[in-house]
């Protein structure tokens, strides 16, 4: 395939799909650092900008591998316009991973989420517009959909609202048909499904997409938003309120305790390995020059293989040789019951699909803790 040259505003044309200079915001984080590795392996030139948020980088900080020693690393906030301007010099495209992640502790966190994720994105995009950087790959999230897709035997595809606290407290975790109250069958959400963010973090992730789409229209830029599912794998944050569920389970197993399941463990998710997510970013960066100017396209980025949280806990416990998970019946109001999406579009358009299977990926993840 031939590609049009992808010219940095003040630099040479990127000769092909290798040799791109890419600013990776949040490049010291779990996913960002894996993207840096993948870009290096692909012959690209990553530059990292990361504020090293204490919530994401508990002491002592993890030592980056030797391969990353030569990667320029700017410790700054994406809201710091001067730092972002400097980081963008000679850059062909931006891979925007910096964000505050997770559900947060309570609503008091809202200004921090909005500041980091949305004001931060706006500052970055304004700097890209000024510097003439034409392409962006955005770390999106499946949280923009709210609940997944559900089908009622009588009413077809329906959209249940947020679950009532009384239902959750009574142990009724499955959303019901809003029209007839029947049990629903969960399905796979496509990218054109309506968005319905259910918490502050989700609202900020959706706003990032809207801001990026506005930037693309205003500047003729190109954006690919990768809506990641539940990412796990080496380097996953642990023991912070923002860590993902796989990390909590593994930490419990390391303490000799059983993983504890919220609700009844029947929540369906799509667990995607961080190496696969990094590969999707590399593929998306390479595809940017071929996209129509002025557009944002969103892609679900998942394994396409739904599993329940309970299955994941059991698989990890077995791989670890630890006690089986226990159901607590506890719940969190902001949680959704099932969210799994089809990742067909990214496979069809960009040729990317996940390479790491659930059993292999989880076994490797459990072993990482045992080392
Ligand atoms: N981990 C998942 O399962 C998952 C799922 C969907 C989407 N995402 C998205 O992927 C991206 C990366 O997440 P992650 O899991 O690697 O989280 P992470 O916390 O490990 O990494 C995020 C990095 O961004 C940095 N950062 C945060 N705010 C910043 C700011 N204002 N300025 C500069 N740096 C800042 C942090 O210091 C951290 O190093 C995020 O955008 C997140 O929303 C993650
Ligand atoms: Zn119905």
Q: Can you give a write-up of this model?
A:
- Belongs to the NAD(P)-dependent epimerase/dehydratase family.
- Residues 22-156, 191-289 form the NAD-dependent epimerase/dehydratase domain.
- It comes from Streptomyces albospinus.
- Pathway: Carbohydrate metabolism; galactose metabolism.
- The protein is α/β, with parallel strands linked by helices and 371 residues long.
- It is globular and about 55 Å long.
- Strands 5-4-3-6-7-11-16 form a 7-stranded parallel sheet, sandwiched between helices. It has a 3-stranded antiparallel sheet with strand order 9-8-10, with no helix packed on it. It has a two-stranded antiparallel ribbon with strand order 1-2.
- The longest helix has 22 residues, at 110-131.
- It has a domain at 10-147 and 189-233 and 272-302 and 342-355: Rossmann fold (3-Layer(aba) Sandwich).
- It has helices spanning 30-41, 81-87, 110-131, 165-169, 200-219, 245-254, 274-287, 309-320, 344-350, 358-370; strands at 6-7, 13-14, 21-25, 45-50, 73-75, 93-96, 135-141, 149-152, 156-158, 185-187, 222-228, 230-232, 260-261, 268-269, 271-273, 295-301, 307-308, 326-327.
- Residues 25-26, 28-32, 50-53, 56-57, 77-79, 97-101, 116, 120, 139, 141, 205, 228, 230-231, 237, 244 line the site of nicotinamide-adenine-dinucleotide.
Could you give the topology of this structure?
Blueprint: E1 6-7, E2 13-14, E3 21-25, H1 30-41, E4 45-50, E5 73-75, H2 81-87, E6 93-96, H3 110-131, E7 135-141, E8 149-152, E9 156-158, H4 165-169, E10 185-187, H5 200-219, E11 222-228, E12 230-232, H6 245-254, E13 260-261, E14 268-269, E15 271-273, H7 274-287, E16 295-301, E17 307-308, H8 309-320, E18 326-327, H9 344-350, H10 358-370
Parallel strand pairs: 3-4, 3-6, 4-5, 6-7, 7-11, 11-16, 12-15, 13-18
Antiparallel strand pairs: 1-2, 8-9, 8-10, 14-17
Helix pairs in contact: 1-7, 3-5, 6-8, 8-10
The protein binds nicotinamide-adenine-dinucleotide (NAD) and zinc ion (ZN).
Zinc ion binds next to loops.
């Amino acid at each position: 395939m031939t590609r049009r040259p992808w010219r940095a505003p003040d630099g040479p044309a990127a000769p092909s799909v290798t040799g791109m200079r890419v600013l990776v915001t949040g490049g010291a984080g779990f996913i960002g650092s894996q993207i840096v590795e993948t870009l290096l392996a692909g012959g690209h030139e990553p530059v990292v900008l990361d504020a090293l948020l204490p919530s994401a980088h508990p002491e002592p900080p993890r030592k980056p591998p030797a391969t990353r020693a030569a990667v320029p690393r700017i410790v700054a906030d994406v809201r710091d316009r001067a730092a972002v301007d400097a980081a963008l010099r000679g850059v062909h495209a931006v891979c925007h991973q910096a964000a505050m992640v997770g559900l947060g502790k309570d609503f008091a966190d809202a200004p921090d989420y909005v500041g980091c994720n949305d004001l931060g994105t706006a500052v970055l995009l304004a700097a890209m517009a000024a510097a003439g950087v034409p392409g962006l790959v955005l770390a999106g999230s499946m949280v923009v959909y709210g609940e997944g897709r559900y089908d009622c035997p009588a009413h077809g595809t329906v959209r249940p609202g947020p679950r009532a606290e009384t239902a959750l407290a009574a142990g009724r975790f499955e959303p019901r048909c809003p029209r007839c109250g029947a049990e629903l069958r969960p399905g796979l959400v496509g990218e054109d499904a309506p968005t319905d963010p259910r918490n502050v973090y989700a609202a900020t992730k959706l706003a990032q997409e809207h801001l990026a789409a506005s930037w693309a229209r205003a500047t003729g830029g190109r954006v690919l938003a990768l809506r990641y599912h539940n990412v796990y794998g080496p380097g996953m944050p642990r023991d912070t309120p923002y860590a993902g569920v796989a990390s909590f389970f593994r930490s419990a197993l390391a303490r000799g305790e059983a993983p504890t399941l919220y609700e009844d463990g029947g929540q369906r998710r799509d667990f995607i390995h961080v190496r696969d997510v990094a590969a999707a970013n590399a593929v998306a960066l390479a595809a940017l020059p071929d996209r129509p100017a002025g557009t944002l396209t969103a892609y679900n980025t998942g394994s396409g293989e739904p599993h329940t949280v309970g299955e994941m806990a059991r698989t990890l416990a077995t791989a670890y040789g630890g006690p089986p998970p226990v159901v607590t019946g506890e719940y969190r109001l902001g949680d959704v019951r099932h969210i799994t999406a089809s990742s067909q579009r990214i496979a069809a358009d960009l040729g990317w699909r996940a390479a790491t299977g659930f059993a292999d990926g989880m076994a490797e993840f459990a072993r990482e803790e045992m080392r």
